[in-house]
């Protein structure tokens, strides 16, 4: 009949089972003569309406089947991580790197410290189907460096002072592209032109994050290969294969939180080699804006100790932190 709701066995069985359970609870409140009287009345009802007992059993079967074989849980949401940039767009980041290295060789201890704060930006040159090209530009830098008992060196590119000789190479790069990179929308680097910069990453990762091509769910991981070179005790160069393991830990208000950890795949048997490799390893958290398609922040930490890298009583401790955070982003109109 039009306008009448359809009969639902599942809803009916739940209601009937609930009534049955309430009746059982109600009966347990009686004892003695009263309980016998109630039970006799229920048996008389069953005898008068034989289908009642079968209906109750059928209802319980439906209810039990619904509990055990109910609706399957919904599929967890999957997220597609992609870069979304436009020609003329500039992403400005503040980058801070602080490191302390303590070494002890034959009883002599030396501590080296470096602290660098720099302003950098991505200048997106062009985008094509599935790829984009950008310049990585160093805008300003403030540096402090001290090694052992030597004098501390300080320089800030924004105060107009002459840089110490140890910072002269950095001073030449201010305002110039460090590199020009072409990458796919999923962050895989296709081409890199080393302009005035260097290809060394020091475990800070590549400029772009390499994402899986398919959407991923929270808790899933993927990895990218990486290689570093170290010199062995006999003077030969050893290639160490490293895997950068990424895990999507959570997503909050459109922001993906990614855990990154470096895992050496090549066995390292010499402590002298390990001492060179530890700075190339990283462990930290990256925040990526899924909706706008760019990185918001990165924090990597190092806490490594190597014993016996230069003799039985030698020791090296390396403590460092690298942070990068988005300061602003805007789009300039390109000349067409």
> What share of the residues does DSSP label as strand, in percent?
over 45%
Class by helix and strand content?
alpha+beta
Count the strands?
Answer: 14
> Secondary-structure element sequence?
HHHEEEEEHEEEEEEHEEE
- CATH C-level of the largest domain: Mainly Beta
The CATH architecture of the largest domain can be named as Roll
Oligomer: single chain
How would you describe this structure to a colleague?
- The chain has 2 domains: 9-68, no CATH class; 78-331, Lipovitellin-phosvitin complex, beta-sheet shell regions, CATH 2.30.230.
- The protein is of the alpha+beta class.
- Residues 1-7, 26-36 and 200-204 have low confidence and may be disordered.
- The protein contains 5 helices and 14 strands.
- It is globular, with a radius of gyration of 33 Å.
- The chain has helices spanning 9-27, 32-48, 51-68, 168-171, 271-277, and strands at residues 78-79, 89-105, 108-128, 131-147, 153-156, 177-184, 189-194, 216-217, 221-231, 237-252, 255-264, 283-289, 294-307, 315-331.
- Strand 4 (131-147) and strand 5 form a beta hairpin.
- Strands 2, 3, 4, 5, 6, 7, 9, 10, 11, 12, 13 and 14 form a 12-stranded antiparallel sheet that branches. Strands 1-8 form a two-stranded antiparallel ribbon.
- Helix 1 crosses helix 3 (51-68).
Fold topology:
Layout: H1 9-27, H2 32-48, H3 51-68, E1 78-79, E2 89-105, E3 108-128, E4 131-147, E5 153-156, H4 168-171, E6 177-184, E7 189-194, E8 216-217, E9 221-231, E10 237-252, E11 255-264, H5 271-277, E12 283-289, E13 294-307, E14 315-331
Antiparallel strand pairs: 1-8, 2-3, 2-14, 3-4, 4-5, 4-6, 6-7, 9-10, 10-11, 11-12, 12-13, 13-14
């Amino acid at each position: 009949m039009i306008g009448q709701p359809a009969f639902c066995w599942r809803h009916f069985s739940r209601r009937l089972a609930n009534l049955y359970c309430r009746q059982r609870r109600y009966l347990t409140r009686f004892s003695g003569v009263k309980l016998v009287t109630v039970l006799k009345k229920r048996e008389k009802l069953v005898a008068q309406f034989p289908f009642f007992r079968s209906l109750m059993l059928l209802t319980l079967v439906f209810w039990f089947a619904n509990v055990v074989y109910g609706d399957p849980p919904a599929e967890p949401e999957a997220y597609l991580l992609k870069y979304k940039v436009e020609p003329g767009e500039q992403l400005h980041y503040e980058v801070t790197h602080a490191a302390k290295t303590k070494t002890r060789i034959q009883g002599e201890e030396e501590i080296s410290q470096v602290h660098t704060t720099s302003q950098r930006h991505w200048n997106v040159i062009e985008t094509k189907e599935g790829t984009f090209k950008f310049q990585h530009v160093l805008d300003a830098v403030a540096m402090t460096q001290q090694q052992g008992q030597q004098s501390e060196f300080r320089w800030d590119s924004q105060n107009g002072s002459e840089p110490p000789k140890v910072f002269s190479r950095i001073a030449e790069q201010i305002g110039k592209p460090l590199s020009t990179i072409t990458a796919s929308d999923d962050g895989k680097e296709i081409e890199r032109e080393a302009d005035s910069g260097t290809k060394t990453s020091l475990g800070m990762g590549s400029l772009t994050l390499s994402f899986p091509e398919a959407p991923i769910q929270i808790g899933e991981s993927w990895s990218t290969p990486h290689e570093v070179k170290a010199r062995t005790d006999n003077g030969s160069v050893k290639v160490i294969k490293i895997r950068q393991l990424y895990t999507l830990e959570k997503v909050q208000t459109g922001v993906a939180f990614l855990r990154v950890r470096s895992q050496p795949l090549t066995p390292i048997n010499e402590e002298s080699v390990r001492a060179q490799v530890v700075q190339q390893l990283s462990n930290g958290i990256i925040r990526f804006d899924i909706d706008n398609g760019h990185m918001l922040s990165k924090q990597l930490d190092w806490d490594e100790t190597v014993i016996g890298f230069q003799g039985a009583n030698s020791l090296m401790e390396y403590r460092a932190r690298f942070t990068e955070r988005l300061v602003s982003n805007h789009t300039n109109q390109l000349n067409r």
